[in-house]
Amino acid sequence: AAHGMAVVARQRVGAVVLADARRLPLPDAAVDAVSAVWLLHLLREPGAVRAVVAEAARVLRPGGVFVTTVDKDAAHDVGSDIDAAFAPYLAPTPADGTDLVVAHAAEGGLDVAGDAFFTGHGQGRSPVSAAHGVRRGYYTSRLVLPGDAAEELVRSLAALPDQDRRRADPEYRLLAFRRG
């Protein structure tokens, strides 16, 4: 649904189609590769991650590869004081947990083919940037903030030292699956 990103992608790769990842406008076994990077962690609706992984499996040719990020929100937990402030508000179950995604992939006939880790250079948070993100609703995929909880969390972040110092950069994980 990000039209601006589709324009950039079109300039880089050619044909681009915007579609719901749960219902791709492709026939069965039509493509060699599917990627879902920075998507699964956002899908909090019950069954949504399973549907996206199943759809990726459906459109892959035999030998095709599905690449996705997993544990995206958890990767931001770098053992910092910000993580300690976030801890009481964490959503109980991440939508993109490795075990969950692997199980969904197996249901669709996809086997784990490999993984890779990469550092999110410059993505470490400072208390100020974390508070700004809480106010903007940026962390809705990982935090549960009913009532006044968002403002309580902002106050906790404001009490941390070194307000502008970024904490460690997160390390993200990609998983690759192959259709048998």
How is this structure best summarized?
The chain has seven helices and four strands. The protein is of the alpha+beta class and 180 residues long.
Architecture blueprint of SSEs:
Elements: H1 3-13, E1 31-36, H2 48-59, E2 60-70, H3 72-75, H4 81-86, H5 98-107, E3 110-119, H6 127-136, H7 149-158, E4 171-179
Parallel strand pairs: 1-2
Antiparallel strand pairs: 2-4, 3-4
Low-confidence stretches: none
Quick one: how many beta strands?
4
Number of domains: 1
Give the structural class. Answer: alpha+beta
* Mean pLDDT over the residues: 95
- Following the backbone from N to C, one meets helices and strands in this order, namely HEHEHHHEHHE
The count of helical stretches stands at: 7
Assign the CATH class: Alpha Beta
* CATH architecture field: 3-Layer(aba) Sandwich
Please outline the major beta sheet. Answer: 4 strands, mixed
* Residues in helix, %: 25-40%
C-alpha termini separation: 31 Å
Strand percentage lies at: 15-25%
What name is given to the CATH topology?
A: Rossmann fold
Radius of gyration, whole Å: 18 Å
Instruction: Give the spatial strand order of the biggest sheet.
Output: 1-2-4-3
**Spatial shape:** elongated
